[in-house]
Design a protein that fits this description.
The protein is an alpha+beta fold and 511 residues long. It is 68% helix and 7% strand.
Length: 511
């Protein structure tokens, strides 16, 4: 069975010492808690106002208008605007819009300027712009007056939208002005190039006509030469084919009869002797045919021979025509090489004119794209600011964290009282245990006399415990009342101040 005497002696000694000084602990806790709570009460309240805004850079027309309208880098521009938002001129504008300049108390202009510089630095350090996700921003600000805090956040939000919208309009107007100037300049250059081409053609008309005529003639002769070469190749292939057919065709019609007789002779020899009458007759006819006596000429052979002569004659004519065209082309090439300077100069002028015309058309297309982008309006490819949470007037302060501070002060007060009781116990030279007495004097302790509590003593102890509990309970109840008054109760100013909205979603169309 567990007994208190089983605990370590230092723990028993200091525990008994703290219990004997319990009223000291409670008194010090009361004093420390009241002092701490008064200090918390004197801390100035900080009210926070915040806004959440999302920058929408893509619309339903995004895939439709790709390549038709102009699209700048919206993400980069928003990031630049975020960096520029807290520059000194912008912070000063926020101060004037929110009325913070009225808090400056100065007797001279120099003092006011110095105070304004300090206020600008302080406000810039207090405004927080966080971006937990791409193109999603949280704007927050804390100040002693909740309405002023709302005005500051509202001014920051409006300034972000106004500056981006103004930058978009300014960029668009500047781009339109530059495009118009470039179009006018290239229009003048295009007209000058057209006049230059016309003047050059008038001045060198005869030379150009001769060069162009020779060039056309040269092109026609090249085409004619290619056609003649193709025909020559075809006729040569045709003549070669006819020679092959002619070599395999018999000159006379007896060729087929001779072949038949030789076949019959071979069949008869396989059946009869050489003196057989039919064999003798066939041999006589074969000798007659082989002698070539008055055999009719083969008409197929004659036809092939005539076609071969015609093909060879056509090929010979085409060869002559090919040689003639080659000679004429060589002579014409010499003529064309005599006047290259005029043609080269004309080609240079024409190239300059075509390049100027191409640049002019590109500028006109850019102007049309810019005009189309501007005409799309809010449904086009602009930037849309979607304000998810508008700045409102805070009902309760966001700082300091009074609930946590009240509980921390209460715990710290009891800790201070207990610490002082422990120190007092450490300095006390009395003994509460026989072991401590025996260790201190080095003498054996024969025994100890316990306290015999009477009914009156027990009654006094109960009353003491009740009073101690009541003191602690009252302190705890006082802490609850303080928590209600400082944290849970709705501030009186919140009854009159409704939610103040900031700027609505604004479409900032861009070029």
């Amino acid at each position: 069975m567990f007994e208190i005497s089983d605990l370590p002696r230092p723990l028993i000694r200091y525990g008994v010492g703290v219990w004997r000084r319990r009223w000291l602990v409670v008194a010090i806790a009361w004093l420390a808690a009241l002092v701490g709570w008064v200090g918390i009460w004197l801390l100035p309240d900080k009210y926070e106002s915040r806004a959440q805004v999302f920058v929408q850079t893509e619309t339903i027309l995004e895939p439709v208008m790709t390549g038709v309208t102009a699209k700048p880098n919206y993400e980069q521009r928003v990031q630049v605007m975020q960096q520029q938002l807290l520059t000194r001129p912008n912070v000063q504008e926020i101060i004037y819009r929110s009325g913070l300049d009225k808090t400056i108390k100065a007797h001279s202009d120099a003092d006011r300027r110095v105070a304004m510089e300090g206020l600008i630095d302080w406000v810039a350090s207090q405004i927080k712009i966080e971006s937990p996700q791409l193109l999603y921003f949280n704007i927050s600000y804390r100040y002693g007056d909740p309405e002023t805090a709302r005005k500051v956040v509202d001014a920051v939000l409006n300034l972000l939208i106004e500056q981006d919208l103004g930058a978009g309009l300014q960029e668009k107007e500047e781009a339109r002005r530059l495009l118009e100037a470039e179009i006018a300049r290239f229009d003048e250059r295009l007209t000058a190039k057209e006049n230059e081409v016309a003047a050059f053609r008038r001045k060198h008309g005869d030379e150009l006509a001769l060069v162009e005529g020779n060039a056309r003639q040269n092109e026609q002769m090249k085409l004619e030469l290619a056609r003649v070469s193709d025909q020559l190749s075809q006729e040569e292939r045709r003549a070669a084919t006819l020679r092959t057919l002619l070599s395999t065709t018999p000159r006379t019609t007896a060729g087929s009869e001779l072949d038949q007789l030789k076949v019959q002779l071979a069949q008869l020899r396989s059946q009869y002797k050489e003196n057989y009458p039919d064999i003798q007759n066939i041999k006589a006819r074969i000798a007659q045919l082989q002698g070539g006596a008055l055999l009719p000429e083969n008409p197929e052979y004659r036809r092939l021979q005539n076609e071969l002569v015609a093909a060879e004659g056509m090929a010979e004519q085409l060869k002559k025509r090919e040689a003639t065209l080659g000679s004429e082309l060589e002579a014409l090439a010499i003529t064309l090489s005599d006047a290259p300077a005029v043609q080269a100069e004309l080609q240079r002028i024409i190239r300059d004119y075509e390049q100027t015309q191409k640049t002019y058309e590109e500028l006109v297309q850019r102007r049309d794209r810019l005009a189309l982008t501007a005409s799309l309006g809010a449904g086009g490819r602009g930037v849309e600011y979607q304000v998810f949470e508008r700045p409102t007037t805070a009902m309760r302060p966001a700082a300091p964290p009074r609930l946590v501070l009240i509980l921390v002060v209460l715990a710290f007060a009891f800790a201070i009282g207990t610490a002082i009781a422990l120190v007092a116990t450490y300095l006390d030279r009395t003994y509460t245990q026989t072991g401590d007495l025996e260790q201190a004097y080095g003498l054996p302790i024969l025994g100890s006399i316990g306290v015999v509590r009477s009914a009156f003593t027990r009654k006094m102890q109960r009353e003491d415990l009740f009073k101690l509990g009541a003191a602690c309970a009252v302190l705890g109840l006082l802490a609850l009342v303080y928590i209600y008054a400082a944290v849970l109760r709705t501030p009186s100013h919140a009854a009159d101040s409704g939610a103040q909205t900031a700027s609505l979603s604004v479409n900032a169309e861009n070029d």
